[in-house]
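Predict the assembly for these two chains.
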Amino acid sequence: MKHSFLDKYSDRDSLVHRLDPRTKLVAVFLFILAVALTSPAMWPGFAVYFVIIAALVLLSHVPVRYVLKRSLVIIPFVVLIAVFIPFFKEGEVAGSYNIWLWQVSVTHNGLQVFWNVLAKAWLSILALVTLTATTKITDLLRGLEQLRLPRVMVMILSFMYRYIFVLTDEVMRMKQARDSRNFGSGRRLWQIKTVGSMTGTLFIRSYERGERVYAAMLARGYDGQTRTPDGPGFRAADMVFGLGFGAAVVLTCIFSFLYQVI
Amino acid sequence: MDEVIRIENLSYAYPDGQPALSGIDLAVSRGESVALIGPNGAGKSTLLLHLNGILHTDGRVRVFGQPVGEENLKEVRRRIGLVFQNPDDQLFSATVFDDVAFGPINLGYSGEDVRRAVADALEMVGMSGYGTRSSHHLSLGEKKRSAIATILSMSPEVIVLDEPTSNLDPRGKWRLIQLLKKLPATRIIATHDLELVAELCGRVIVLDEPTSNLDPRGSGG
């Protein structure tokens, strides 16, 4: 079966695409750190972050619609976590409501934190989407490895990338086989049981596949140690981008901090 | 004759106690092309897993005159390349290049040698230029040929294949047979495909229920 590529626009060519994956990884990490450290009250700071990331998206020739759509995925999760903050944060009350027996009140402070959590999460996810949209997954993995992420973790990520489609196919085939036998007309409890045993089957199949993959690795001389050939090096463009981007992000963070202190 | 593999009285039972192989005798000489046929569950794949020591052999399998054991596993696995039936098991890396390079890297080749070995292997199976592709976007025929390349990159002397033509359409199958014909190595092929056997193999071993064994040369031939 055909699947869409996870890194759909990564084979395009642009300034951002040509950067070394390591540069991009460090830049994204720095960006998220700066965003997280910026005080909630500093709206101009967030505006600057947004402009920076928007400029990168435009530079990268990745369709803006695609980036926006992908970035929205995170919103439900964040809302679910953050939705209670306005009610529990103490401070000046913005509104008070009676819900049956409870009286709940929303504070200004709480609302600010709520919007801020949303904004920070969204900016961070924008950066990540831009990163994955402009970098091939394999390059990303190599970058992580060159940045000294433990090799075992890189391998786990690479196996995940390799087998997620194989597993999706397997689930699809199982569903087709199930539906071909008129699944959905039986009793509810029985249906749930069927789904449960399908999940179990999938687990066992994956486990057995793991054994076979390991055998295939052994057959090619794998001895528990992992080695990699060396990749291409750093270029001047990486240096320039890294310094420029780093300076912009760090300065924004520092200025918003100073502004608040003064 | 130059003997590459000799198996004497090999038995194996699955972890649950069910016998899979019993009393297998088999000898393969250099340059031979041997087919291993038999019904499902006869133990073909299990037998193949003994050839390069993935399943323990207690010295009953001798390769190039040496019993297979812990100390020579690496050497044995370089000289005997095992291609698994399902290419999705064989191709576990993010790109075709990484997969074909996996063996040479494990053997400790230098960066330049790895690249050359990969290029040669891909060329041999007609997959040059596929190095940067992800395996899950290949067709089954391409996957099978890549899987063979992952073994060829280690320049093995014996190539062991488990059902290389299963699930392929006739054109893909014949293409694969032509490819296998060209390979400069001793071949051991487990298969149900008698056309492949007729085309490629000089000798046929029939493996039936775990009690029988029909290689007349195995015991002292």
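The radius of gyration of chain B is 17 Å. Chain B has a mean pLDDT of 88.
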